């Protein structure tokens, strides 16, 4: 696992990301085990599916949708699986769907799911009236990277896609290949980052590629003060090592639960 030694810029500021904040706010124990304890890597086919789908979709858009979206998914997926197998060659440490007994079976299932997701998402894109937003300098609203200066630390991230509708409204879209989100805070952080660049996007959505549905959010509720307050407090919790154990339904999908002081069998 990656140890919790955040990179710093030339000014000495540590770098934070939404994955850090999401994990820490959900369960401090998961954050501690993933980022401060040297445990074996615990990858999964689900992780490979997410990475491959995003990379494949980005390239598809950059090449003006000139080939079927599912055409190159297999190559991206197999490359990601191969990379994860180098990181963790022992299948006993791989996470998998509970109903599946073998890791290789899970890999095959996720591959098929990815192909279906790609086919479905291409159809959705072709039927939609939105176009990808482009900034004044021509930068496409695709994997839109940003960095926010928050005093002692900087917050970095990338927005999956920015959609411009015929009405002129701008929507932040985050593609999800896994479980449903219960909060729009991630989208709220993204809208704050865009406001810092004088870009207004008061609407956001999580698009779930598994079943082709989206959950929309009015982002006007995420004020600058609220976003900064939450990010700053979470950074302070990390720096103070306030790792609270908070079990929940998400424990079923946790890659480090075997070492959890509350739920695990290998905690010692």
What does this structure look like?
This protein has 268 residues and is α/β, with parallel strands linked by helices. It has two domains: 89 residues, no CATH class; 100 residues, Lambda Exonuclease, Chain A. Helices cover 38% and strands 17% of the residues. It has seven helices and seven strands, in the order βαααααββββαββα. Strands 1, 2, 3, 4, 5, 6 and 7 form a seven-stranded mixed β-sheet that branches. A hairpin with a 5-residue loop joins strand 4 and strand 5. The longest helix is centred in the middle third of the chain and has 25 residues. It is globular, with a radius of gyration of 19 Å. The chain starts with 13 loop residues before the first strand and ends in a 29-residue tail after the last helix. The relative contact order is 0.15.
> What is the CATH topology descriptor of the largest domain?
Lambda Exonuclease, Chain A
How many domains is the backbone divided into?
A: 2
Q: Give the number of DSSP strands.
A: 7
Q: How does the major sheet shape up?
A: 7 strands, mixed
Number of helices: 7
Summarize this structure as a short list of keywords or feature phrases.
Lambda Exonuclease, Chain A, 7-stranded mixed β-sheet, 7 helices, 268 residues, alpha/beta
Quick recap of the structure?
With 268 residues, the chain is α/β, with parallel strands linked by helices.
């Amino acid at each position: 696992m990656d140890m919790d030694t955040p990179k710093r810029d030339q000014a000495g500021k540590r770098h934070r990301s939404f994955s850090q904040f999401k994990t820490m706010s959900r369960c401090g124990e998961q954050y501690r085990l993933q980022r401060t304890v040297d445990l074996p890597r615990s990858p999964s086919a689900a992780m490979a599916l997410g990475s491959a789908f995003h990379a494949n979709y980005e390239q598809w858009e950059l090449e003006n949708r000139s080939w079927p979206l599912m055409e190159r998914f297999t190559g991206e997926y197999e490359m990601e699986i191969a990379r994860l197998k180098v990181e963790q060659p022992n299948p006993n440490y791989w996470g998998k769907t509970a109903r599946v007994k073998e890791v290789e079976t899970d890999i095959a299932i996720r591959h098929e799911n990815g192909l279906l997701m790609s086919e479905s998402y291409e159809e959705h894109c072709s039927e939609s009236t939105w176009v990808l937003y482009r900034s004044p300098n021509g930068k496409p609203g695709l994997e839109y990277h940003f960095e926010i200066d928050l005093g002692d630390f900087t917050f970095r991230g990338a927005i999956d896609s920015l959609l411009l509708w015929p009405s002129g409204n701008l929507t932040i879209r985050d593609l999800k290949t896994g479980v449903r989100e219960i909060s729009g805070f991630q989208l709220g952080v993204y809208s704050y980052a865009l406001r810092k660049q004088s870009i207004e996007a008061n609407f956001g959505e999580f698009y779930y590629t598994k079943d082709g549905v989206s959950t929309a959010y009015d982002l006007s509720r995420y004020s600058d003060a609220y976003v900064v307050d939450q990010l700053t407090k979470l950074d302070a919790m990390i720096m103070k090592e306030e790792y609270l154990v908070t079990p929940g339904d998400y424990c079923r999908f946790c890659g480090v639960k075997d070492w959890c002081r509350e739920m695990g069998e290998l905690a010692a």
